[in-house]
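re: that chain from earlier
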Amino acid sequence: MSSVFSGIWVPLVTPFQNGAIDHAALRRLVGHCVASGVHGLAPLGTTGEPAMLDDDEQLAVLDTVLEAAPGLPVMVGLAGVHQGDLMRRLKAFTTRPIAGVMVPAPYYMRPSQPGIADHFTRLADASAVPLVLYDIPYRTGIDIQLDTLLTLAAHPNIQALKDCGGSPDKTQALIADGRLAVLSGEDAAVFSSLCMGGHGAVAASAQVRPDLFVAMYRAVQAQRLADARAIFHALAPLVRTLFDEPNPSGVKAALHHQGWVDNELRPPMSAVSDATQARLAQHLETLANAPC
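^ sequence. v structure.
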């Protein structure tokens, strides 16, 4: 559990106002997460809408997060298919004091497992900071198989995994292997992953109630499982509703209800329905009164 890639990490939304990045809101949101005791921040992951940001905007978001959270580890999302583009953006990111880069499998192209392994190996060889593998087949269209992950775990610059693979057996095998710090990326699976010995989570819903996610993590680490279980069950209805519509629309709606950001996304993303917004508001109110 000594890895820097441990604890509760927040994959931050990118706030917008009238089409532009709202850096003031981003700084406020970062401050809220830091004050709640989160262990790290992950801008420009899926939740940050990076595909709708140009290169300059991505660097500006990263710089704002680093300035607002001095001393807290930051890993930045790096997604794509074109190796030259990825290497160029990797070089730009690593001029900043980041803890790592979080990299999904190449999306849409559906490469072979050797192709996936080569993709990650090239990036790990070139990177000045560690890679965090990001296994999320329902977005990329390709599963990073267990054997591939175990092979990549031997690379000294590949140190962790954001686990959205949807396979409890694969999660258990990777935790048992012990070479990669396994961070749950499925918010509803955070409690079970922690109880299996996972290192932590990269959980989008954690920015809505970072205090409770941190409390749940600390309770598991202290073997106060009844306390951790109670927090998880209190959070579960909110977590489910946050993902009733495509992420990050639910998270932004909840954060807007709390007063942190405008409820604005960039096309083709759109705001949640009025019905989902109402359910989120109800869950947030219930959770505010829960004895957690």
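The CA atoms of residues 13 and 48 lie 4 Å apart.
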